[in-house]
User: Fold this.
Amino acid sequence: MALGHAVLAALLQGEASGYDLAKAFNASVANFWVATPQQLYRELDRLEADGLIAGRVVEQQRRPNKRLFSLTPAGLEELAAFTAAPSRPTSIKDELLVKVQAMDVGDTDAIREALQDRLAQAQEKLAGYERLREALLAGRDEDDYLLHAQRIGPYLTLMRGMAFEQENIEWVRRCLETLAAR
Assistant:
């Protein structure tokens, strides 16, 4: 139930609509879990049916009514059990890596363009993560934040996302330098 656990973890921030969760996934959770809005809405329905979250309708003037979701005690128990269970190591599944692996028999210019695209994407994501980092820190020193903030999980996962994008940038630059030198 990995997506479900990611949704439950996102709801630790408090009550949220499906739209709010989709934005939150895009802004912060996306550094470790990707989901489309449609997947999120289906998962919210499933989690509610399983009693792990509760939804309530908020009537709005001049806009469609919205549903807000929050964790139930059963959802908190499920999340606690999930955090206690062993984790499996991750593996990389990246189409670009397959293309680079096979580039010696393919179109090097197309690979170079794909690498340039990846560089731009990584730089954009890193810039977004840096903005999120500044917002989380809110002027505090990182060490102070990590010692005293009420919740540090979002910051620690953000650090991993930033490191991942920094490594992507380094790797792509090295690939492009290598191609330029050949």
